Q: What sequence folds into this?
């Protein structure tokens, strides 16, 4: 197969070229069908790459035939291919879901542009995961961010607060991206290269300079802003709450994951574990922020009345789990962090899709408005319960796998700080029980308001993608061979300093 | 006077701080975008400075090189990189201003605290409305 060697380029080029074509599509559902097809094709390519990397190791693709480090290199390694598969899967499933939901929330004449933005966002995120060139990362980051801002603002048709949310996201996102740009520039000053592998080889010689330490600072803060790591999370709740429902599901499963990938890539591949965790106290800083994130935001999620906002707060908490895994700086810890990328993407996107089903039928996402829905929309609400189990980390769900590895990593580390963190993970899980219970109580144990019109179950076109993700999150809670296997490969490669 | 020799880096730092300060301190949404622009422009200076060396010339074959005299070249890569970043900056500004226009259309103001006030009042009004229901 000659096409197969060009999969790394096609992975990005396909959605990138499809985007302008999509903007020309007219007529009912045409743009949607096209974008969905492209997204599933991208998923197919990502799966092919994932298995190719599993079988033969990292793939290096030289764009235009220029040898790295002069030319731009696309490099697919274990971590990269894992992320490609996650992002394309979430995009394909949420696009399959999107037709009815978007038709209701976005004006008909904007549909073509809406799906164009979606494809651009997808192309940008795939580019970040695949490129081996630091400056390319910045460019793709801005491609995906700018289209995400526009997607969030598309919710402005129904609620004007989507506009201020998008504006706030734009300002903070741009500051984050510019910090990343400064960091990359400072590294380039000292190493004279933009290729990530070349950088990692040249960095140790100049690691003891102030320029490199400052670069590490700028990069970490810039990425933390994009990652919504506490206390740089301010943009996230509003953006998730007011975006169109399908967009919330999409970005909840992808955008913070891609940022976490950047954190891993820069702190471990570029700077290397000895610099990040030895010379700089990055792991201690991350551990404190991560614990604060999941404790504070699991608690705050309990207070929310809007289910989308509740899930957004829970997302900030879940980012905390991932970062805590990284902060252990061990193979088990990193495995926990990386596998949670995948597990949380499945669970959170599945939950946002459930909420989108509810919004499609009753037009509200408030907990009080969901009273009595357990009987009226049994399939949707049961999916929400199963997804909620995943957030809590009940055994046999994907969330349990993560917490299992997190606590194993804490026990392995054996430090008192690690043990305290493990205990706090359990506390945070108990808080998750409360905020999931709030929704369950309203849906199952409160009667529907008297005189309210009867609500029908969500249509099959919405239920199928939702259940696909929820069942996947259960499946990967039981059979962890692929999800944990790839995550462990990636963790070993990252800590070995080679990618 | 080595610190004076790096004056363009000092300008970078000062501009960056001014830009960030404007973004944080101003409540007017257009002024925030202006601050963001100053902040981004400062990074352009950083990249342009790092590529330029004193008496450096463009990386082309010159008469001096043909005569066998030593020639200093400036590094063109950062300049090319920052062209891309400038384009990104223009796109960000355009999108940001487009949001401001839409915000002005739906709120009637572009002052952050007024918008916040309106959102809070709408929230209170809605909860009272809900509280009135049985």
A:
């Amino acid at each position: 197969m000659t096409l197969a060697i060009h999969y790394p380029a096609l992975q990005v080029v396909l959605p990138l070229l499809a985007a302008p074509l999509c903007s020309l599509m007219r007529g009912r559902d045409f743009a949607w069908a096209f974008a969905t097809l492209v997204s599933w094709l991208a998923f197919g390519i990502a799966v092919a790459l994932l298995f190719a990397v599993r079988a033969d190791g990292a793939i290096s693709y030289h764009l235009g035939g220029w040898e790295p480090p002069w030319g731009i290199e696309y490099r697919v390694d274990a971590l990269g291919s894992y992320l490609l598969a996650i992002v394309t899967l979430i995009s394909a499933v949420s696009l399959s879901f999107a037709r009815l939901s978007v038709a209701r929330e976005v004006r008909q004449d904007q549909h073509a542009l809406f799906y164009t933005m979606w494809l651009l966002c997808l192309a940008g995120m795939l580019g970040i995961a695949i490129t081996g060139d630091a400056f390319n990362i910045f460019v793709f980051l801005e491609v995906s961010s700018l289209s995400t801002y526009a997607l969030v603002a598309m919710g402005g048709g129904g609620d004007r607060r989507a506009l201020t949310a998008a504006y706030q996201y734009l300002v903070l996102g741009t500051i984050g991206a510019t910090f990343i740009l400064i960091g990359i520039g400072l590294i380039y000053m000292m190493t004279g290269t933009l290729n990530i592998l070349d950088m990692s080889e040249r960095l140790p010689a100049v690691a003891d300079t102030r320029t490199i330490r400052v670069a590490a600072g700028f990069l970490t803060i810039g990425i933390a802003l994009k990652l919504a790591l506490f206390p740089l999370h301010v943009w996230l709740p509003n953006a998730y709450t007011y975006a169109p429902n399908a967009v919330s599901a999409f970005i909840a499963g992808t955008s913070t994951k891609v940022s976490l990938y950047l954190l891993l890539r820069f702190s471990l591949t570029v700077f290397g574990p000895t610099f990040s965790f030895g010379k700089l106290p990055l792991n201690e800083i991350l551990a404190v922020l991560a614990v604060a994130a999941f404790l504070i935001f699991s608690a705050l999620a309990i207070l929310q009345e809007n289910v989308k906002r509740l899930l957004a707060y829970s997302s900030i908490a879940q980012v905390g789990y991932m970062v805590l895994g990284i902060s252990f700086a061990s193979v088990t810890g990193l495995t926990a962090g990386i596998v949670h990328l995948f597990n949380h993407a499945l669970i959170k996107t599945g939950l946002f899709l459930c909420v989108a089903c509810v919004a499609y039928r009753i037009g509200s996402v408030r907990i009080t408005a969901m009273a009595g829905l357990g009987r009226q929309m049994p399939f949707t609400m049961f999916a929400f319960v199963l997804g909620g189990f995943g957030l809590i980390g009940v055994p046999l769900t994907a969330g349990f796998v993560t917490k299992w590895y997190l606590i194993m990593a804490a026990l392995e580390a054996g430090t008192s700080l690690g043990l305290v963190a493990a205990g706090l993970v359990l506390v945070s899980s108990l808080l998750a029980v409360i905020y999931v219970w709030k929704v369950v109580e309203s849906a199952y144990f409160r009667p529907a308001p008297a005189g309210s019109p009867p609500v029908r179950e969500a249509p099959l076109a919405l239920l199928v993608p939702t259940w696909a993700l929820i069942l996947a999150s259960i499946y990967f809670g039981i059979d962890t061979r692929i999800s944990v296997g790839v995550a462990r490969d990636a963790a070993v490669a990252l800590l070995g300093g080679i990618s | 006077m080595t610190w004076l020799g790096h004056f363009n880096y000092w300008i970078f730092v000062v501009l960056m701080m001014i830009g960030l300060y404007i973004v944080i301190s101003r409540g007017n949404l257009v002024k925030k975008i202006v601050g963001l622009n100053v902040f981004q422009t400062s990074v352009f200076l950083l990249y342009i400075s790092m590529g330029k060396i004193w008496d450096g010339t463009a990386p082309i074959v010159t008469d001096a090189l043909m005569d066998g005299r030593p020639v200093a070249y400036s590094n063109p890569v950062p300049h090319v990189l920052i062209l891309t970043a400038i384009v990104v900056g223009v796109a960000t500004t355009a999108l940001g201003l487009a949001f401001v226009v839409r915000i002005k259309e739906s709120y009637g103001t572009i002052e952050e605290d007024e918008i916040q006030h309106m959102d809070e009042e709408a929230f209170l009004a809605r909860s009272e409305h809900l509280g009135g229901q049985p």
